[in-house]
Amino acid sequence: MAISGSRVRRAATALLTGVALAGLPGATATAAAPPDATPDRLMTVTDVWMRDLVSDAGLQPHWGSPIWASPDLKVCPTAAGCASSVPPVVGGTNHIITTLRNPGPYSEGTDSGTLMFYRSSPGASLVWPTAWTFVTSVSLTVPPGVTTVSVPWIGVPGPGHFSLIAVWQSPTDPLLPLTPDIQTNVRRNNNIVWRDLVSVDLLSGGGRPSTSIDRRTTMEQGIVPARSVPLWTDQGSAGLDR
To answer: What domains appear along the chain, each with residue ranges and CATH number?
Structure first.
């Protein structure tokens, strides 16, 4: 791990933290102008991360697919969790289960921060911020090891197809600059994960589970382009080509 120039890189990281936080509703940060260069990811003080795929080791960028089915972000019927994500129920109490991993490949040590959740609307685009809704957040300390976080969720939209995102925010583990493209953001940041969901209304059809809902994901149906999906507007920054 290179150490020379650490003060310069840490200063740039602090600036980027302000830029990234400014693009997340529900988060606050001191305003800062975008730096001229991306900081060395190796210089972050801590590195809490979540997997995009089972084979994900936390390296940035991550080019595996599908990028929208994180095994570390699930919706379950109870706070105890579930083996795999299930369709969230409209009008019921669901639970968002998130797995945080520490340390990652870039640093180590106990970290404190905020885990934030956002959702899109059924059948809508993923344009940030108009197409996204802040769900909830939880502040916590993440020691070395695996930490599982369970958050109750009663405001599930739908029924229909939508996306859920989990973002880990920490002053010592900042996000790289966010772009309008969701895939770019997820691939470049090991502390952002994405889960494509299909919600169901168990009360439709006289109390029986609805059978009229197409349970394919938005990606499988082609509702959202798989290669270019707009997300955060990072103070005017443009999306990056894959």
So the answer is: 46-221 (2.60.40.10)
